[in-house]
Design goal:
This protein is an all-alpha fold. It has helices spanning 2-13, 19-24, 28-58, 69-86, 88-93, 97-127, 139-173, 176-184, 186-216.
Length: 217
């Protein structure tokens, strides 16, 4: 009887865990980050749907004005930052904290350049007569400001987390013992994993938003 029960336990132990089981085993930090990204994606999806609906109802033809070139430049910059961020996990696996710090610093710098180009893009919109407020403002123009500004706000939130991670890596790289502790700490690895996932998510999100602006502006 006991042997049969033990065999059943062994058979059950070999079964692949269910989807819910795998979710339960995820660290709380990653779960919170993934849920936050899902919420952000839903929010932007609703905003884009509202923008497209408002744009179509306005009856104004598309292509009357060119989309600010700064938006195109910022897209290229953000793609470059996604590449530099993608190198972070490889450098961490190679225990190369010095190169990891430079990689994170480059990503942070490119994020700042992206935010600056977005501001220049808003100034270009004002030059074209598209304002967020005032008698000449339009609902579709307001959506462009709102959606792009919200994206920059979420990017800045990621940059603050990236800055904190960069400072930790720089501090750990100054001492061999701290460097070893940092590399062997799974919590830091999860932080880097979450940061990379979030940055790529913000990148893909902007590419999708830029595509909508490109065809609907």
């Amino acid at each position: 009887m006991n042997s049969e029960f033990e065999r059943n336990k062994q058979v059950g132990a070999r079964r692949n865990p269910s989807s819910f089981g795998r979710i339960e085993r995820l660290p709380p930090l990653l779960v919170a980050g993934y849920l936050a990204m899902v919420a952000i994606a839903i929010m932007f999806l609703m905003l884009v749907a509202a923008y497209v609906t408002t744009r179509l109802r306005s009856g104004v033809p598309t292509g009357l004005h060119a989309l600010p070139r700064y938006f195109s430049l910022s897209t290229i910059v953000l793609l470059l930052s996604s590449y530099t961020m993608g190198q972070a996990r490889r450098l961490y696996a190679q225990d190369d904290l010095g190169s990891l710090a430079r990689c994170l610093g480059a990503t942070l710098l490119l994020g700042c350049v992206f935010a600056g180009l977005q501001v220049l893009g808003w100034r270009d919109l004002m030059t074209q007569g598209v304002f967020f407020q005032g008698l000449t403002s339009t609902s579709s123009g307001q959506f462009i400001y709102l959606i792009s500004a919200l994206h920059v706000a979420h990017l800045l939130g990621g940059m603050l987390f990236l800055l904190a991670l960069l400072l930790r890596v720089t501090h750990a790289d100054r001492d061999a013992v701290r460097s070893l502790v940092f590399i062997r700490n799974p919590y830091h690895r999860r932080q880097l994993q979450l940061m990379g996932t979030y940055w790529h998510f913000i990148d893909v999100l902007w590419v999708a938003l830029f595509a909508v602006f490109l065809f609907m502006y």
